[in-house]
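Entry for LLP complex. Fields follow.
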Amino acid sequence: MHHFHYIDGDLSCEQVPVARIAEAVGTPFYLYSRATLEHHFRVFDQAFASLPHVTAFAVKACSNLAVLALLGRLGAGADIVSGGELFRARKAGIPAGRIVFSGVGKTTAEIAQALKEGIYAFQVESHPELLLINRVAGELGTTARVALRVNPDVDPKTHPYIATGLKESKFGFPVAGVEKVFAEADALPHIRVAGVHQHIGSQITQITPFVEAAERAAELIGTLRARGIAIEYLNIGGGIGIPYDEQVPPTPAELAHAVLPILKGLDVTVLTEPGRGIAGNAGIFVTRVLRLKDTGDKTFVVVDGAMNDLMRPSLYNAFHAVRPVRQGDGPDIVADVVGPICESGDFLAKGRPMQRPDSGDLLALMSAGAYGFSMSSTYNSRPRVAEVLVDGDTFQVIRARETYEDLIRGEHIP
Ligand code: LLP
C-alpha cells in the first residue's frame, strides 16, 4: 500500500502533484510520502503487538533525519551499523534505549560512543569483537549489554549479495557450538548477555525462511536457559520483501502470524529490524528526460538521474517500475532508461516497454524509498540530489540538493 497515485493523469504523492514539486525543487529528487511511512510502520509494529516488542527501523535503508524523527515519534527504535547512524538516530530523537548496533566491523571508537549513549544492546558478530567490547566497557567502567548474532544457515532465497544467513556469509556466529560462546560471554566481567540476534537476508518474499530461523532461535534459547544463561530478547531481524514487480511477499501480519506461535512461549521481548518494508514503497525517484537517442537497434531514454543517485539497478540488476509523471498517449516503445555517467552499467531500467517520452518529461522510478538516497554517491562529481517529504497537501525539502561547493568541501590543494 502506498500513496503515489494518478489524479487526472498527474502522478501525485498524497495530494500533491509530483510535477509541482519538480518545478519547485528541480530534478532529480527523492520524494517520500509521510502517510505511507506511517502506515507501513504502524502495520508492522501492530503485527507484533501481542508480545513485548520493539520495531527497530534499519537506518541504512533511509537515513534522512526527518524520516527517522517521524518513525521515532511513532515509537520506532533503530538498527544501526555505524557511529554515523548512531549520530543520526540520536539527532532524530530516537531514544538510546531503543537502539541496537549490528555489523562485523565496529571500531573501538564506535563501541565507546555507543556505550556512552547507553544503547539497548550490541549485536556481536565475532569472538574478537566480543573481547573488544568487554575491554572498552571495562575502560569506561561500565557493562555492555550484548546479543550474539547467530547465523542459522537458512536460505532466504534472495539475491546472493543480500543473503546474510547462509553459513558461507561473513555475518554472525555459526549456530553449531554457539552456546559455548554465549557461556564465555556470560563469564566476561564487563559483558551482560541479553539476547539472540538473527538477520537472514533482505527482500525475502517467502515465509518459510523466517519460520525456520525462528524455530532455530527458539531451540537455541531453550539450550541457553538450560545452561543458566538469561536471555531477555530475541531479534528476528529485518528482510521482509516488497513488491517491486510481480512479487507477492508476505504481509507483516502474515509474517507475525507464522512466527508468533514459535515466539509466544519464550518469554522474550521480540525485536524486528525492518528497513525496506517500511521505506521501500514510501519513496520514489523523480528524474527528467534530457533527450531520446535511437541507435537503430535500440532506444535510449537519457535522463538527468544516474547510477550515482539510484544504484540498485546497476549493482543488483534490480527492477524499479518506470512511470510517466504525466500520463500521455504517445506510442509505446521499448527502451533503456540511462543516465549521463560514463559507464555502460549506468542504467535505471533496461528493455522496458513504456510510452515514448519527450525531452523535458518527468519519469518516476517507483519503490525507491529504501537503499535509494542512502546508497547514493557523488560519482562523476554529481552533487547529491534533494529529498522531499509530502504530508497531505504540503511538501518540504528535507535535504537540500548539494551544491558544487559541497562537492569540494574538505578538499585542499597542497
Ligand atoms: N538488520 C540487519 C542486521 C541488516 O543487515 C539489514 C540489511 C536489515 C536489518 C534491514 O533489512 P531490510 O528489512 O531492509 O531487508 N542494499 C540492498 C539491501 C542491503 C541490506 C543490508 N542489510 C538493496 O538495495 O537491496
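NOTE: The radius of gyration is 23 Å.
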